[in-house]
Amino acid sequence: AVFENRLVTAFLRGVPGLEAWSLLGKAYFHAMETNPDGSPTYDMVILDSPATGHGLEMMRVPRVLLDVAPPGLLRREAEQAWALFTNREQAGTLMVTLPEDMPANETLELHEALTEELGLPVSGLVVNGIVPALFTPQEHHWVESRPAKEAPEALRPLLQAAHRRLNREQVQHDALEHLAAHLDLPRFQFPLLLGSEFKRAQIETLASHLDPEN
Rounded distance, CA 208 to CA 152, Å? Predict the structure, then answer.
């Protein structure tokens, strides 16, 4: 009710960095929130970050506050939040990407910014949208050696689809190899789910892939 208020929204957007700090500050507040008996209110607090560029800008805000804010409440809260965000025992970033060339390269750049520039711990890597291999090596070679344009007209659409699938599988393989070669992180691979529904069965399918691949 507060953050969706028209006046509050205009105020947050009018002050550079304030909207990002309000989101981070709320995540920090809940991470430190306790019950009347002193026990933590939540076992875990998850902040779903915006896309890479905006997410990095958001994470830079506390560092900027530490550099420019005078001693006082704002700086003290920024110091406490940054101490939590950089504590490897309490916090970590889980990067999410796709098994494609550009997203993989962007993920490597994100990892460098998080670790080298900001000094934030990275807990792991999630790769979404993994497609299973449809062809055996022999079938792969058979399809690859037969141009679709030279096939009989009735088979041409099938060969075109097969070539597109082979290309996607190769792109996926290369992206996964590229990520594995440069990131020594636990990796979680989630399959591409096709369908119009996302219910318990689909959630259980994804949950079955929660063991890291390496």
Answer: 42
